[in-house]
Write a structure and sequence with these properties.
mainly alpha, 39 residues
Length: 39
């Protein structure tokens, strides 16, 4: 796989998985913040 092909795949997948990834990291960050504040 060339770098150009990899970048094309990323450009196609980012719109599809971007919202899911952002939601996952957002929920993880919230859990981490609550855990740190809880201590």
């Amino acid at each position: 796989m060339t770098i150009r092909e990899a970048m094309l795949i990323l450009l196609v997948l980012l719109p599809l998985g971007g919202s899911a990834i952002i939601g996952f990291f957002g929920s993880t960050a919230k859990i981490t913040k609550h855990g740190l504040l809880g201590r």
